[in-house]
Design brief:
Helix content: over 70%
Number of strands: 0
Radius of gyration: 25 Å
Strand content: under 5%
Distance between the termini: 46 Å
Order of helices and strands: HHHHHHHHHHHHHHHHHHHHHHHHH
Number of helices: 25
Structural class: mainly alpha
């Protein structure tokens, strides 16, 4: 009961904030309704007063919110301010579409995650894990922007080859490309986290005894998966919600009538009843996904956490491959060289005669649709995009560790249910558009996966026998947290945070492209992608340059953490 009460309370609080947004931003919803329904009428005080009386807005935001909450008990989601039609007939089908697309994307993600960790499972079952792996392929795939992957698939598979349709929804063929675009980055992230945790399971005494006793490798691998999955199941729940509400760009590109696109359109049009219904459904989905993953983790662990008999997962001492450090150095040198070369050029100079020019001595990476040098914008955007992303990741890491340790599950699931774009719209409405508002919006939701990961690891570590022994010996809570819990929880969560740097950079740039972040013509990698995407077939370099930079950033993050981890264990 406490679990459900906490989540429902958080749900109502978030919906209340959405309902009070017009009053907080000092906007006039009546003006929005006038422009949407009666574009030919002048906004006279009499007309606006009549609209407020017709829609019940004359009572103020609290009255509107109370009326909407009261209608929920009768199954009424309200009436759209823009169309004047009931909300439920438009929102519920969108939820069905998003759930279908989510299921297909989740199948793609599961298949890719299994493929990425298959090698570790095979070697671990044979006791042949001898060096640390980087998972660079997973990092590159996880760093690929969903809308860029969607655009490439549409341009190549649908337009050039003609194998699958590029637009629409309703047939199995139309669902393939959106599911791939959404499932590949999610599967890469899940596969990387699972691949990072498996060596610790294979290093436990039971695995050594099982291999020595001749237990088949498949059974050993299956038990290792069961040992590591409980800590990753909260991430799976967050991915489920993210695939449903966060696929705004993919749904827009493929003309998929899903819930994410519906919520974004409602937010941009200030159609509050539709936005409230979308947020409510997303939060309910987050509560359901959290409850299911919580139950699944409890089932996999059994009575071990309650009995204090769950040993801690300790990573083995695996020296890093020499290629990891060399690859990290080369990638870092490449990014620094590109940044320095770009900083020496003018990113705002427009040469109309050189629009979409191919790479040359004058423009090593070509020009964009306005004739601006791509190398210059890439270099100047690196400082803005990467440094801001690193700062946001540092703050989200601290928030994730803190809120994960106190088990703020309800707040975690609610924050993850809100796409960063919707959070950006709310923050922009409160504080106005700008780079600080975009960073705040991404920070407000990006800590949730780290908090879920921390909470899962923290719960397992508290059930470890060595923690019970320390408490029996008289160790206080601070000593246990500092000497036992934090050293076990911090390294995997820190690697998780580093892995999310490219995704945070893209989220910041996406908000900037929507006009909620740094204003044009400031260079940002995500804006470069979105601005030049319509010209990808004619000038692919204008899109490949920022895409390669994001992919290189993701690979550099994983190579660096793997190399440092291997060096630390080798010298310990």
């Amino acid at each position: 009961m406490t679990y459900l009460a906490g989540r429902l309370g958080t749900l109502l609080a978030v919906v209340a904030v959405i309902g009070l947004l017009p009053g907080l931003t000092r906007t006039d919803p009546a003006l929005t309704i006038l422009h949407a329904r009666y574009a030919d009428r002048p906004p006279t005080p009499e007309t606006l007063a009549a609209i407020r009386a017709e829609t019940g807005l004359d009572g103020g935001p609290l009255t509107v919110l109370g009326s909407w909450l009261g209608g929920l008990f009768h199954g009424d989601l309200g009436t759209s301010w823009v169309s004047g039609q009931p909300v439920a007939p438009g929102v519920l089908p969108a939820l069905g579409v998003s759930l279908t697309l989510m299921g297909l994307s989740l199948a793609v993600a599961a298949a890719l995650a299994a493929a990425l960790c298959a090698g570790t499972l095979r070697r671990g079952a044979r006791r042949r894990i001898v060096t640390a792996r980087a998972g660079a392929v997973a990092a590159v795939l996880a760093a690929l922007p969903e809308f860029l992957l969607a655009a490439v698939l549409a341009a190549v598979v649908a337009v050039r080859v003609g194998w699958l349709p590029a637009l629409g929804w309703g047939t199995p063929a139309q669902a393939v490309l959106p599911a791939l675009a959404m499932g590949v980055p999610a599967g890469a992230l899940l596969g990387r986290l699972l691949d990072d945790a498996l060596p610790a399971a294979f290093a436990e005494p039971w695995a050594r005894a099982a291999v020595a006793g001749g237990l088949p490798g498949r059974r050993v691998a299956r038990h290792a998966l069961r040992r590591t999955l409980p800590a990753l199941l909260p991430q799976l729940g967050l991915v489920v919600v993210g695939l449903t509400g966060g696929a705004v760009a993919v749904e827009t590109l493929y003309a998929v009538p899903g819930l994410g696109g519906t919520a974004l359109a409602a937010a941009l049009a200030q159609d509050l009843p539709v936005l409230q219904a979308c947020v409510l459904l997303l939060l309910l989905l987050g509560v359901l996904a959290g409850a299911v993953t919580r139950l699944a983790a409890h089932t996999l662990l059994g009575p071990a956490p309650r009995d204090g008999a769950l040993p801690a997962l300790v990573p083995p001492d695996l020296p890093a491959r020499r290629l990891l450090a060399a690859g990290a150095v080369l990638l870092a040198a490449f990014l620094v060289a590109v940044t320095v070369a770009g900083l020496l050029r003018d990113p705002l100079h427009v040469d109309a005669a050189a629009r979409l020019a191919s790479p040359s001595a004058a423009h090593p990476l070509g020009t964009d649709s306005l004739g601006r040098d791509v190398l210059a914008r890439l270099g100047h955007g690196a400082a803005r995009t990467v440094l801001t992303a690193l700062a946001v990741c540092a703050v989200t890491l601290l928030l994730g560790l803190l809120l994960g340790a106190v088990r703020a599950g309800a707040l975690t699931e609610s924050a993850n249910a809100l796409p960063a774009i919707l959070a950006g719209l709310v923050v922009a409405g409160l504080a106005g558009p700008g780079p600080w508002g975009a960073a705040l919006a991404v920070t407000a939701v990006a800590w949730a996966p780290l908090a879920a990961h921390t909470a899962a690891l923290y719960a397992q570590e508290k059930a470890a026998p060595h923690v019970a022994a320390a408490r029996a010996a008289g160790a206080g809570p601070r000593h246990v947290a500092r000497r036992h819990l934090l050293p076990a929880v911090l390294p995997p969560v820190l690697r998780h945070a580093v892995l999310r740097v490219p995704a945070v950079a893209l989220a910041l740039a996406s908000l900037g492209f929507l006009g909620l972040g740094a204003q044009p013509p400031a260079p940002e990698w995500g804006r470069m992608l979105a601005e030049n995407l319509p010209y990808a077939e004619r000038a692919p370099w204008s899109v490949l340059a920022p895409a390669a930079a994001l992919a290189a950033l993701g690979a550099l993050a994983v190579l660096t953490t793997a190399a440092v981890r291997g060096r630390r264990t080798a010298t310990a």
